[in-house]
Amino acid sequence: MIKVGVLGSRGRMGAEVCRAVQGADDMELVAAVDQDDDREPLTAAEVVVDFTRPAVVMDNLKWCVDHGLHAVVGTTGFDPSRLDTVRSWLTGGKGPNVLIAPNFGIGAVLMMHFAQKAAPFFESVEIVELHHPNKVDAPSGTAYRTAELVAAARAEAGVAPPPDATTEEFDRARGADVDGIHVHAVRLSGAIAHQEVVLGGHGELFTIRHDSMNRESFMPGVLLAVRKVVDASDRLTVGIESLLGL
Ligand SMILES: NC(=O)c1ccc[n+]([C@@H]2O[C@H](COP(=O)([O-])OP(=O)(O)OC[C@H]3O[C@@H](n4cnc5c(N)ncnc54)[C@H](O)[C@@H]3O)[C@@H](O)[C@H]2O)c1
Ligand SMILES: O=C(O)C1=N[C@H](C(=O)O)CCC1
């Protein structure tokens, strides 16, 4: 049995993770901790799952590493500088492992993978993400990561930046620029988590779309990460692509 603790346990995702862990034959939920709760009960866990807020996740993660607890992190906000900081905590011999994934949905991971593959073949590419209006961060972690992957794939293939003759009359009309890729964030009542990667070439458009219809859809990926993080060969894993053999 893998002993699991959850940080952000009263949140939308944290509560779903608690249910999923309780329903898994090979896991035991030993601690459920939210804001202002004592973190000490988490020391009974082997793996801690964090779905909290970008503003607090680094402090939580440092606490887990300092206490020798493996961590699976779904909270967003991990830019390259934050990832470097986490790497700096994980030097030295054996110690806890960390897995950080912007999206645990299997289809979302495949969407990012296919977008990365397609990006060098098209002159233009933009990302549109749509989420529920209670989401505190924008653009989404998934859109940010997709843009990074798409930009890297284009740079490696020597593809020029997407053409754009816009002279901006209104601030931010073209969305956020992540590594030269435009990302548009929509917040809509009724939405959960959705993303389109729109690619344009010579006389053709190609759209890759993924829709999360509920938060249960993220749970197979979260449980897989909990099972794999303990014996991971790398101290830090980003994304669950490698766990899926991609
Ligand atoms: N990786 C994925 O697949 C995935 C999927 C959905 C959401 N997310 C991300 O997960 C995060 C949480 O999303 P949500 O919709 O569950 O948010 P939420 O606001 O519903 O839940 C966050 C919870 O964290 C708690 N919290 C705040 N500070 C805390 C602290 N210091 N210690 C412990 N708990 C604390 C809050 O009280 C709240 O209960 C966001 O960053 C979101 O983007 C990731
Ligand atoms: O609901 C959220 O918040 C989500 N956050 C992640 C992101 O920012 O990409 C994953 C999708 C849902």
Automatic annotation (TrEMBL):
This protein's UniProt keywords: Amino-acid biosynthesis, Cytoplasm, Diaminopimelate biosynthesis, Lysine biosynthesis, NAD, NADP, Oxidoreductase
Binding site for NAD(+): G8, S9, R10, G11, R12, M13, D34, G74, T75, T76, A101, P102, N103, F104
Domain of life: Bacteria
Domain named Dihydrodipicolinate reductase N-terminal: residues: 2-104
Family: Belongs to the DapB family.
GO molecular function, one term: 4-hydroxy-tetrahydrodipicolinate reductase
Top EC category: oxidoreductase
Known partners and oligomeric status: Homotetramer.
Listed SUPFAM superfamilies: Glyceraldehyde-3-phosphate dehydrogenase-like, C-terminal domain (SSF55347), NAD(P)-binding Rossmann-fold domains (SSF51735)
The protein, known as: 4-hydroxy-tetrahydrodipicolinate reductase
Organism lineage string: Bacteria, Bacillati, Actinomycetota, Actinomycetes, Streptosporangiales
UniProt catalytic activity: (S)-2,3,4,5-tetrahydrodipicolinate + NAD(+) + H2O = (2S,4S)-4-hydroxy-2,3,4,5-tetrahydrodipicolinate + NADH + H(+); (S)-2,3,4,5-tetrahydrodipicolinate + NADP(+) + H2O = (2S,4S)-4-hydroxy-2,3,4,5-tetrahydrodipicolinate + NADPH + H(+)
Organism the protein comes from: Actinomadura montaniterrae
Gene Ontology biological process terms in this record: diaminopimelate biosynthetic process; lysine biosynthetic process via diaminopimelate
Cell compartment(s), UniProt: Cytoplasm
Function statement: Catalyzes the conversion of 4-hydroxy-tetrahydrodipicolinate (HTPA) to tetrahydrodipicolinate.
Positions of transmembrane segments: none
E.C. no: 1.17.1.8
Residues annotated for (S)-2,3,4,5-tetrahydrodipicolinate binding in this entry: H132, G141, T142
GO cellular component, one term: cytosol
This protein's pathway: Amino-acid biosynthesis; L-lysine biosynthesis via DAP pathway; (S)-tetrahydrodipicolinate from L-aspartate: step 4/4
Keyword NAD: yes
Active site per UniProt: H131 (proton donor/acceptor), K135 (proton donor)
